[in-house]
Design a protein that fits this description.
The protein contains 14 helices and 18 strands. A hairpin with an 8-residue loop joins strand 8 and strand 9. The chain has about 450 residues and is an alpha+beta fold. About 40% of the residues lie in helices and about 25% in strands. The longest helix has 25 residues. The N terminus is likely disordered. It is elongated and about 80 Å long. Among the domains are: about 100 residues, Carboxypeptidase-like, regulatory domain (Immunoglobulin-like, Sandwich), CATH 2.60.40; about 120 residues, Glutaredoxin (3-Layer(aba) Sandwich).
Length: about 450
C-alpha cells in the first residue's frame, strides 16, 4: 500500500492513502481441488524474474472464505509459464501464488471469463499486466491517481493559499475519476474504481480540514457486500490502512475510535465479512503485542460477532487470548496438594510461579522439563506448577517422580480437557510466568525464551 506524506513546517504529517497494490492480500485458507480442463479458450500466462527465484505459478480462484486451487504452471528457464483456462472457470477474482508461505507470496487479478491474462512480475516492481483490459485499466487507474495525489501532496507542502491552483488540481482529480469510471462501465473492475472514489472538496480547504474530510470519506464509497471486493485484497487493505496508517503516531484512544469506525461502516447484514475483517484487525494487534487493543476489539465487537455467526473456534481463540493476556490474572484451576484440595490462586510462599502445560507422552516436554528443573533448582522464590494433559495417569504417575519439587496437576481428557481452551494451549510444552498474585508476567514461546525470562528475575 502506497502512502504519500503531506508536510507542514511544524512537522505535521498527514498520511493519505492513495492506492491499494494488487499484489497484497488478506490471509487466506487454500482448499485444493482439481477442475477438469476441456475446451480451453483463454490462458493465464506470465514471466517471473529473476527466473531462478521461482519454479511454479499456482492459480487459485478467490472467494470471501478463502481460495480454491485451479491449476499450476511450471516455469521454464526464462521464467515463463502458461496455464490454460477452461470455459467452466467463472469470472471473478483469482490469485497467483509463487512462493511459500502462500499467504505472503501472491497477488490477485481480475478474470472476466473472456480475456487472456498476461503479466510480468518481480519482487521489486510487483506485477505489471501486459494483457487483459480489466487489469490494465485498474493498474492505469492506480498510476493516474498516484500522480494526481502527488500533485496534491506537493501543493500542500508549499503552504501557500493558491485557490486557483487548488481548484485546478481537484478538477483534474475529479475528471480523472469520472473518466475511469466511464471506461470501467460494464466491467468487473468498476467495483474497485468506484470503491476507491476519492474525496473531492467543493471549495478551498486547508490541510487540516482536507485531512479530516479525507479520513471521514475514506470508507464511505465502499460496498462491503460486494462479492468481488470481498474476494480480493481490497477490503482488507483498506480496513487495515484506516485503522493503522491514516493517522501518524495514533494513541490507543485513536486506535479504538478507528476500530469502532470500521465496525460502524460495515452493515450487520454482512456479518461474515464484518467478522472476518475485525478478526484481521484483532490479529494485527496480537502480532504487535498490544494486548489491550486486541482485547478491546474482542470485548467491544468481535466476541459478539463470533457468537452471532456461530464461529466457535474464533470465540474460543479470542477468549483464551483475553484470559491469558500479559497483565491479566491467570485463570484459576484446582490443585490437589498433599491430599488437600487447593487452587492456583491459593498457592503461597513464592515471588513467582511458572505454570507449565506438558504431557508425559510429549517428547519435547521430556527433553525440556529436566532443563527447567536444573534452571530453577537454585531459585527458592520460584515455584513450578506442572499441569499435565493426559489420557490416563499411568505414565504420568511415574514421570512426576523425577520432579519432586514441582506442584503437579493432571488434566485428564488431554486435548479435550477444558483447561486447554481456557489457556489456549495449542502445543506442549507451554509456559506462563506469574507474579506472586498470579498475574501473567510473560508467556515464553519456547525453552530458549523461558531461559532469558527466568534469568531476568
Amino acid at each position: 500500500m502506497k502512502v504519500l506524506d503531506l508536510k507542514q513546517n511544524n512537522g505535521l504529517i498527514i498520511e493519505v492513502i492513495v492506492r491499494i497494490k494488487t499484489y497484497k492480500m488478506k490471509k487466506i485458507i487454500f482448499v485444493l481441488f482439481v477442475i477438469p480442463f476441456l475446451g480451453f479458450s483463454q490462458t493465464v500466462k506470465g514471466n517471473f524474474s529473476p527466473a531462478e527465484d521461482f519454479s511454479y505459478a499456482f492459480l487459485y480462484q478467490a472467494t470471501p472464505q478463502g481460495a480454491n486451487y485451479v491449476n499450476r504452471g511450471k516455469l521454464d528457464s526464462l521464467g515463463n509459464f502458461k496455464i490454460p483456462i477452461d470455459s467452466t472457470v467463472t469470472p471473478g477474482i483469482y490469485k497467483i501464488v509463487y512462493a511459500i508461505p502462500p499467504e505472503e507470496n501472491n497477488f490477485d487479478f481480475i478474470y472476466d471469463g473472456k480475456e487472456t491474462v498476461a503479466f510480468n512480475f518481480n519482487y521489486e516492481k510487483g506485477v505489471d499486466f501486459t494483457e487483459s483490459e480489466e487489469n490494465k485499466l485498474w493498474n492505469s487507474y492506480l498510476k493516474s491517481m498516484d500522480m494526481v495525489n502527488q500533485t496534491i501532496s506537493n501543493y500542500y507542502s508549499k503552504e501557500t493559499i493558491d485557490k486557483k491552483g487548488f481548484n485546478s488540481i481537484f478538477k483534474v482529480l475529479k475528471d480523472t475519476q469520472l473518466a475511469y469510471e466511464e471506461s470501467a462501465n460494464g466491467k468487473l473492475v468498476s467495483a474497485f474504481i468506484t470503491a476507491n472514489r476519492p474525496y473531492i472538496p467543493i471549495e478551498y480547504e486547508d490541510i487540516s480540514t482536507y485531512s479530516k474530510n479525507l479520513k471521514k470519506q475514506y470508507l464511505s464509497q465502499i460496498d462491503f457486500s460486494n462479492y468481488l471486493l470481498q474476494s480480493s485484497s481490497f477490503l482488507v487493505d483498506r480496513v487495515t490502512a484506516y485503522v493503522f496508517n491514516i493517522v501518524e503516531n495514533p494513541s490507543d484512544a485513536t486506535y479504538k475510535k478507528h476500530v469502532d469506525d470500521i465496525a460502524a461502516a460495515i452493515s450487520n447484514d454482512d456479518l461474515i465479512i464484518k467478522t472476518s475483517l475485525l478478526e484481521i484487525v484483532w490479529q494485527r494487534f496480537v502480532t504487535l503485542e498490544n494486548h489491550d487493543l486486541a482485547n478491546y476489539v474482542t470485548e467491544k465487537h468481535l466476541l459478539d460477532l463470533a457468537n452471532a455467526t456461530n464461529n466457535k473456534v474464533l470465540a474460543e481463540t479470542i477468549t483464551s487470548y483475553k484470559n491469558t493476556s500479559i497483565g491479566t490474572k491467570a485463570p484459576d484451576f484446582d490443585i490437589l496438594l498433599e491430599n488437600k484440595k487447593t487452587s492456583l490462586h491459593q498457592l503461597e510462599g513464592a515471588e513467582n510461579y511458572l505454570v507449565i502445560f506438558w504431557s508425559s507422552g510429549c517428547g519435547h516436554c521430556l527433553t525440556e522439563l529436566p532443563k527447567v528443573k536444573d534452571m530453577v533448582a537454585n531459585n527458592p522464590n520460584l515455584k513450578v506448577v506442572a499441569y499435565a494433559l493426559e489420557k490416563d495417569n499411568k505414565k504420568w504417575s511415574e514421570e512426576i517422580k523425577n520432579y519432586p519439587n514441582f506442584t503437579h496437576v493432571i488434566g485428564l481428557g488431554k486435548w479435550d480437557n477444558p483447561i486447554v481452551k481456557t489457556y489456549g494451549v495449542a502445543a506442549t510444552p507451554m509456559y506462563f510466568l506469574l507474579s506472586t498474585s498470579k498475574i501473567i508476567m510473560a508467556k515464553p514461546y519456547d525453552y530458549e525464551d523461558l531461559e532469558v525470562v527466568l534469568k531476568s528475575l
